[in-house]
Amino acid sequence: MIDIMKKEFINPSPEFSPIPFWFWNDELCENEIERQILDFKRKGVDGFVIHPRIGLPKKIQYLSDEFMSFVAFAVKLASKNEMKVVLYDEGMYPSGSANGLVVKDNPKFASRGLKKIEFPCDCTCENNCTCKFSIRPEILDDENIVSALAIKYNIDNKIESEFIAKLEVLDNEITFIPQDAGIWKVIIFVDCYTHGTIRGIHFGEDDGEPKAPPSGDLLNPKAMQKFINITHERYFSVLKEYFGNTIIAMFTDEPSMSGRCADSGVLPWTTDFLNYYLAEGNLEVDLPLLWDDNDVETQPVRDKYWQTLNKKLAETYYEPISMWCEAHGIALTGHPEKSDDIGFLKYFHIPGQDIVWRWVAPEDGKGLIGVHTTMAKCSSDAARHSGRRRNSNECFGCCGPNGDHWAFSEDDMKWYLDWLFVRGVNFLYPHAFFYSIQGDKRYGERPPDVGPHNKWWPHYNVISDYIKRMSWLMTDSINQADIAILCEDDHLPWKVAKPLFENQLEFNYLQRSLFETNACSIDDGKIKIANQEYSLVIIEDEKILTTIENEKLQTFISSGGVVIENPLDNDVLISEIRGKTRHSISFSKCCPDLRISYVKKNNIDFFLFVNEGDDQINTEFTVSLTGKMEIWDAWKGTIQPISQSILRIDRRSSLILCVNSQ
To answer: Domains in the chain, start-ordered, CATH in brackets?
Structure first.
């Protein structure tokens, strides 16, 4: 087996190829499409995402016969050259609008929201109140009053919860008589359009431009069924013979409930949503709190609101599309809107995330600090716990230093690749290969080109081979992390993760919602889910402690499992972990820039080491395993025996330690 694995590592399968976003952003020509596809193939790029992009000429309308003829030509040529294609479900992004076609024939399918209109109704009566207020809010024909509340405020402008009254609305008129003197407001909550848009595929259809396509109502099941009919069924009708072989997936891209450039102060909502909202345990009298972002005490109300929205979005958007893809022999891939939206990833056959705008970066600690640093573990841990082979990242978009995105270097690219791989990502969608860079609006639209129009393109085989080798290593392998950080479906803690990374203590994020299901079992002091086992659990989020199924957690503890709650001191946390978990490898000195991932592949032990810093790492290591040790170098494509337990890794580099006990 090990000899076969060595051959697979040195010459990895095209299955593990990068699948770049290919920006179709100019006049299309079959000869040019063929030239570029064959050029991809020569550079070891064995697939692509057809991404209609701003810059397409207006004569090529989205999903038109002419557009689809070019798509069919590209797919047929890919099939002939044993390449794979991922279809993209939108005309630009975010997904769910079909470049405005969802709304074109039915304006009611545009994204909707909830706005509030306030009417001061202060009562100055000293004794018996004689005030009477008649309110007739000005609302448009396409708007609906959802609720009307009378609310009393104290002198600090805080709501006095015992003085909240629901008011009756008759013919859009509201009558209010205060209960006593004080500061009162009548607040009308109105279901309205968000006026959100998406970025379109023709010049003049970008953010803020008058012809930007309207975003669809992702919470409306009829609107989203229309989206599927327009988009997915159209592709299938033309390309049916390639589904499940050449065409492997459909990419959905950060669907937004409100759309881009939505009206300020309007929160996501949809028609007739109030009953759904109430059925999920929310209260109508709490609606005003949804706008109080700075009120810590009322944060649970807003958390519950977003959880309710996400549940509805899963029902109307993610689940139907996932089922459609599965029924048609392809995978749902892509990523949700937020970097830590792990809950939605259960609907993805290839869970994913995206690195953009250099929010994650080599400098200023941005590899470990902030919510975006959770995204790689978000996709890989979602895949591990749902039994998915692959998980992905749309990487490199606008990741140049200091806002100069064309200055994105091969050195930076290597850092990003390693940052992803060591966290378990094994499928990459480089963003992007440009069909054309003619003119400022193409050259400057979400650069850089990380393919044919870059100076490193003649040497791209080195990059594509590296991606394939590392993706091979992290696919069909079982991660050996012994630590789980409990998280919510829409929040992954990053602060407690930082010291674990810096001390080479591998962990995985485990959702509370999964822990509480039969997917997780408790046995002999371990939490078992899919191929993973955890003997130590960290709970940073106090909200989890108040909502988790305590009986199951206590069963874990009583059977020998360890739970660390609210860790405040990093040194104490690390000391406690080291004393209570297994350690297959240790190092002679502190290496805060060293990241590791320990996996078993075909029962062979592999340790992936990555240096995320700018100084060489030199340290001795001790492995508690027995067997022949070798260094596998994925960048050079070499395998060498190692006689000394000394780890030397250059800046921004990686090495793989193989321990073969067979």
So the answer is: 2-104+206-262+292-473 (3.20.20.70), 112-193 (no CATH), 481-581 (3.40.50), 587-660 (2.60.40.1180)
At 22-59, the pLDDT tens digits run 999 999 999 999 999 999 999 999 999 999 999 999 99
With CA atoms as reference, report the closest residue to 45 among 55, 53, 37: 37
Instruction: State phi, psi for 197 to the nearest 5 degrees.
Output: -135, 175
Closest by alpha carbon to 424, among 485, 490, 351, 363?
351
Which two three-digit tokens encode residue 484? Answer: 């789980």
Whether residue 640 contacts residue 584, with contact meaning beta carbons closer than 8 Å, is answered with no
Classify residue 167 by burial, with Cβ atoms within 10 Å: 0-12, 13-18, 19+: middle
The mean of the pLDDT values for the chain is 93
Dihedral (CA of 378, 381, 385, 388) sign: positive
Kindly report the backbone phi and psi dihedral angles of residue 47, in degrees, each rounded to the nearest multiple of 5, phi listed first. 180, 175
- Mind listing the pLDDT tens digit for each residue in 163-206? 788 888 877 788 777 777 777 788 999 999 999 999 999 999 99
299: part of which helix (H) or strand (E)? helix 299-313
Handedness of CA 208, 210, 212, 218 (dihedral sign): positive
What is the separation of C-alpha 479 from the centre of its chain, rounded to a whole number of angstroms? 21
Helix (H, G, I), strand (E, B) or coil at 377: helix
Q: 């573990």: which residue's tokens?
A: 377
C-alpha 629 chain-centroid distance: 37
Smallest Cα–Cα separation from 633: which of 476, 413, 466?
466
Q: Which residues neighbour 155 within 8 Å (Cβ) at sequence distance 6 or greater?
A: 183
Amino acid identity of residue 484, one-letter, is A
Query: What is the C-alpha to C-alpha distance for residues 446 and 411, in angstroms, rounded to an integer?
Result: 20
* Cα gap 356→149, rounded to integer Å: 42
Q: Residue 420 has which token pair?
A: 């992803």
pTM over 0.90: yes
CA separation, residue 260 to residues 62, 100, 196, 216, 245 (Å): 20, 13, 5, 11, 35
- Tokens 């820039």 sit on residue: 593
For the chain, state the CA radius of gyration. Answer: 27
| Residue 243 DSSP code | B
What strands, in cross-sheet order, belong to the sheet with 352-356?
352-356, 392-397, 427-430
C-alpha 610/C-alpha 590 separation (Å) is 15
